[in-house]
Amino acid sequence: MGAAFYIAAAIAILSTAMVITRYNIMHALLYLIVSLLSVAVIFYIYGAPFMAALEVIIYAGAIMVLMIFFVMMLNLGQQSAGDERHWLTPRVWIGPALLCLFLLAELVYLIMQPPAPPAGEIVMVDPKAVGKSLFGPYILAVELAGMLLMAGIVGAYHLGRQKKKITHRFLERATQ
Fold first, then answer.
1. How crowded is the C-beta side of 156, counted as CA atoms within 13 Å?
2. Rounded CA separation 138/92 (Å)
3. d(CA 37, CA 102)
4. Which of 41, 33, 40 minimizes the C-alpha distance to 15?
5. What single-letter DSSP state applies at residue 24?
6. What is the spatial distance between Cα 134 and Cα 77, in angstroms, rounded to a whole number?
7. What is the pLDDT of residue 155?
8. DSSP code string of 70-129
9. How many other CB atoms are found less than 10 A from the CB of residue 89?
10. What number of CA atoms fall less than 13 Å from residue 70's CA on the CB side?
11. 131: how many CB neighbours lie within 10 A of its CB?
């Protein structure tokens, strides 16, 4: 399993470096999804399949869909429609698709392996314990993170909407 960890870690580092160096936001988001998927593989390797599933469902799934939705929402107009068609060319998807296929092959290989005896004392954490932890002593942090995300979404919407400039009725009389 040591080699599997190093392969997944190398893919995570490579895809994260690609996130940082891409000028196009859609390319960066694709590589960020690959990075999150490779972190999920690392969680699976170290015996945390529930965390791996949460990583895929919450981060690589829901949050990335929201990010892509807001990027597309903020780029309105004819020029952005042409840009979106350019972003969807197969050349753009080759790098992330190859990295994802490599991660999938590695994950299938790991699933097919017979279970190894535990190296030390391993404590399984069930989903109920995670829920009790999140909504027990850490409820304030979870709620604050939710409010922060909502404020970011509302702020992005208000900054990105294309609305005609409206002059207040009191200012209209002053300018006439």
1. 16
2. 40
3. 11
4. 33
5. S
6. 42
7. 79
8. HHHHHS-SHHHHHHHHHHTSHHHHHHHHHHHHHHHHHHHHHHHSPPPPPSS------HHH
9. 9
10. 17
11. 10
pLDDT tens figures, 31-44:
888 898 899 999 88
What is the Cβ-side half-sphere exposure of residue 167, based on CA atoms within 13 angstroms?
8
Q: Which regions of the chain carry the CATH code 1.20.120.1200? A: 2-123
Of 15-29, 62-76, 93-107, give the lowest mean pLDDT range: 62-76
Q: In the 8-state DSSP scheme, what is residue 58?
A: I
At 117, the amino acid letter reads P
What pLDDT is recorded for position 169? Answer: 59
Q: What is the largest CA-CA distance in the chain?
A: 84
pTM: 0.56
Give the closest residue to 119 by CA, choosing from 9, 27, 40, 45: 45
Tokens for 66, please give them: 């929201």
Structure-token pair, residue 142: 């979870």
CA angle in degrees (0–180, nearest 5) for 59-36-102: 135
Instruction: Fold for 2-123, please state it.
Output: Four Helix Bundle (Hemerythrin (Met), subunit A) (1.20.120)
